[in-house]
Design goal:
Blueprint lengths: L4 H63 L10 H14 L2 H14 L5 E5 L5 E4 L1 H5 L6 H8 L4 E6 L5 E11 L2 E11 L1 H48 L18 H50 L4 H30 L10 E4 H11 L1 H6 L3 E6 L4 E4 L1 H18 L5 E9 L2 E8 L30 H12 L3 E6 L5 E8 L5
Parallel strand pairs: 7-9
Antiparallel strand pairs: 1-2, 1-5, 3-4, 4-5, 6-8, 9-10, 10-12, 11-12
Helix pairs in contact: 1-6, 7-8, 8-12, 9-11, 11-12
Length: 497
C-alpha cells in the first residue's frame, strides 16, 4: 500500500503543495511586515516634518512680533527667515529659542513621542511619551544624522516590545540646523504579525489535510481504470491468451496502456501458437523417419540376416537419419528466424553456381523418378546474404517441386536478372494448388489440405518466405489445380565484391 502509485501521487501532490504554501506564507508574512514598517516610517517622517513646520512657524511669529510689520513695509521671504534662524544658531541663541518653543509646545501636551536634538547632539526637548519609551541616544546615529542622512533604527526597550526610531535632520544651506527624533512602539504591528503567523500555522496544515483528501480522491478516480486492467490481466492465463482487457476511452495514457497491453497479449498469443505449432511440426516431421528406423531395426533383429541385408538396413537407416538431420536443420533455422535479421552474416553470393550445387544433392531422386529438368541460366548473378539460408530456399523449393511432380514429369528452372533484381523461377507439373490454399501456403505451419499429398506442416515454404523477406526480397506463387505450380523469387542484385 505504501508503494502504490496512488500513495506516491498523493504524497508528491501534498509535498509540492506544502512547499508552495510554506513559500507563500513566508513571502506573505515578510511582505506584510515590510509594508507595515513602511507605514510606520512614513508616519514618523510626517511627524518629524510637522515638528519642523512647528519650529519654523514659531520662529516666524517671533520675528513678526519683534519687527512690528506695518502695511507697505518690506516683506521678508522664507529664505531670509531661515537665514535668521541660521544666524541665531551661529550666535548660540538657537538653543534658547528651541527651549522657548519647547516650553510653549509642552503646554499643548503633544501626544506623539518626539525629541529635538541641537547641532551638538544635546537633547533640547522631549515629550513625556518619548521619555517613557526609554529611547537611547546613540552617538553613531547622531553623527550619521548630522551628515544629512535620515536614520532608521529598531530596538527593544524595557517594558515595551520593539521600538521604531527615526532621526530626521533639518537642513538649510547645506548645514544641519537640528535633528528631530520621532519614535513609535511596534507592539501593534508585532501583534498583527503574530496573529498572521498563527493563522498561517493553522491554515496551512488544514489546507494540506484537505488537499490530501482531495488528492487521494482524484488519484483513486484517475487510477480506477488501471485497477480494472490489473484485475482483468490477472484472469488471463496461457490458456486464455485470446482474451483482451477493456480499453478505457479516456484519450490519454491509460487508453494507450490498454491498447499496448492488448497488443502484447496478441504477440504472446501468436508466440504461444507458434510454440505449439513448432512442437507439433517437430513431432510430426520426426515421426516418419523414426518409425522407419524402428521398423527396419525390428525386422533386422527378428532373425539372422546375411551381410547384404544388413547393409541394406543400414543404408535405409542412414537415409532416414539424413532426412531427420534435414528436418532438424529446418526447425532450427525456423527457430532462428524469430531472432530477426540482426543474426545473419551478409556476404556476396553467386546464385547460378549455388543452384547447380543444390542439384547435386537431389540428383538421385531426380534420376529415380525420371523427372526431366530444364535449367535456363543467364551468366553469373550476385546478391548479398547468408549463403546457407539462400541455399535452404532453393533446396526447399526444389524439394517441394520434386514431391509434387509425378514420375516422368518435368520441372523448369530459370535464373535471370532484370530490373536490377535477381529472378529465380521454378515450375513443376504437379497437381497444383487451389485458390483457397494459396493465401496460406507460406504460413510457417500450414497443413496442406489436398488429398493427393501426405499431411505436411509446411515448414519448408514458411521458412522460404522468412528467408526471402529477410534478404529484402519477395516470393510469389501462381497455380491452377491440375496444371502445376509456379514459384517466383526476387532478390536485390549486388556486386561481387
Amino acid at each position: 500500500m505504501i508503494r502504490s502509485i496512488r500513495v506516491t501521487l498523493t504524497l508528491w501532490y501534498v509535498g509540492i503543495l506544502a512547499v508552495l504554501l510554506c513559500a507563500f506564507g513566508w513571502i506573505l508574512y515578510t511582505k506584510v511586515g515590510v509594508n507595515l514598517m513602511k507605514d510606520v516610517d512614513q508616519i514618523l517622517i510626517s511627524e518629524a516634518n510637522g515638528i519642523a513646520d512647528s519650529i519654523f512657524a514659531f520662529w516666524q511669529a517671533k520675528w513678526e512680533a519683534e519687527h512690528r510689520l506695518f502695511e507697505g513695509s518690506r516683506q521678508e521671504t522664507l529664505a531670509e527667515h531661515l537665514g535668521e534662524i541660521e544666524k541665531e544658531s551661529i550666535r548660540g541663541d538657537f538653543t534658547n529659542f528651541l527651549s522657548r518653543w519647547a516650553h510653549e509646545l509642552t503646554e499643548l501636551h503633544p501626544a506623539h513621542a518626539m525629541q529635538v536634538v541641537d547641532q551638538n547632539g544635546n537633547p533640547v526637548f522631549a515629550t513625556k511619551t518619548f521619555g517613557q519609551l526609554h529611547v537611547p541616544l546613540v552617538n553613531e546615529a547622531i553623527r550619521d544624522a548630522k551628515k544629512g542622512r535620515t536614520i532608521y533604527e529598531s530596538f527593544y526597550a524595557p517594558e515595551h516590545d520593539r521600538i521604531r526610531v527615526i532621526l530626521y535632520p533639518i537642513i538649510e544651506n547645506g548645514r544641519v540646523l537640528y535633528i528631530v527624533q520621532t519614535a513609535a512602539t511596534l507592539k501593534q504591528i508585532d501583534s498583527s504579525l503574530e496573529r498572521l503567523k498563527l493563522g498561517l500555522f493553522g491554515l496551512i496544515p488544514l489546507t494540506l489535510i484537505f488537499a490530501t483528501a482531495v488528492g487521494w480522491f482524484f488519484a483513486t478516480i484517475a487510477l480506477k481504470p488501471i485497477g480494472r486492467l490489473i484485475k482483468q490481466a490477472r484472469n488471463i492465463t496461457a490458456e486464455h491468451l485470446h482474451e483482451r482487457v477493456d480499453v478505457p476511452k479516456t484519450g490519454d495514457e491509460l487508453e494507450e496502456l490498454g491498447k499496448t497491453f492488448n497488443d502484447m497479449l496478441a504477440r504472446l498469443e501468436r508466440a504461444f501458437k507458434r510454440l505449439r505449432q513448432f512442437s507439433a511440426a517437430a513431432s510430426h516431421e520426426l515421426r516418419t523417419p523414426l518409425t522407419i528406423i524402428k521398423g527396419e531395426l525390428e525386422v533386422a533383429l527378428r532373425s539372422t540376416r546375411d551381410v547384404q541385408e544388413y547393409q541394406r538396413v543400414l543404408k535405409t537407416q542412414l537415409e532416414a537419419l539424413d532426412e531427420m538431420i534435414d528436418i532438424v536443420e529446418q526447425l532450427l533455422t525456423l527457430a532462428r528466424s524469430e531472432e530477426g535479421e540482426e543474426s545473419m552474416e551478409w556476404r556476396p553470393i553467386e546464385l547460378t553456381h549455388l543452384i547447380e550445387n543444390v542439384f547435386g544433392d537431389w540428383r538421385k531422386i531426380i534420376r529415380d523418378k525420371a523427372i526431366q529438368i530444364n535449367f535456363v541460366k543467364n551468366g553469373p548473378i550476385w546478391i548479398r546474404g547468408e549463403q546457407p539460408l539462400i541455399q535452404r530456399v532453393f533446396s526447399n523449393l526444389l524439394d517441394n517441386a520434386l514431391k509434387h511432380t509425378p514420375a516422368n514429369g518435368h520441372i523448369r528452372i530459370e535464373m535471370v536478372s532484370q530490373n536490377n533484381e535477381a529472378v529465380f523461377i521454378i515450375e513443376d507439373s504437379g497437381p497444383g494448388i487451389s485458390k483457397q490454399e494459396q493465401p496460406y501456403i507460406f504460413d510457417k505451419f500450414f497443413t496442406k489440405r489436398s488429398v493427393t499429398d501426405n499431411d505436411s506442416t509446411g515448414v519448408g515454404l514458411g521458412l522460404c518466405r522468412w528467408i526471402v523477406e529477410a534478404h529484402q526480397g519477395k516470393i510469389e506463387i501462381s497455380s491452377e489445380p491440375g496444371k502445376g505450380a509456379r514459384f517466383k523469387v526476387l532478390f536485390p542484385l549486388s556486386q561481387p565484391n
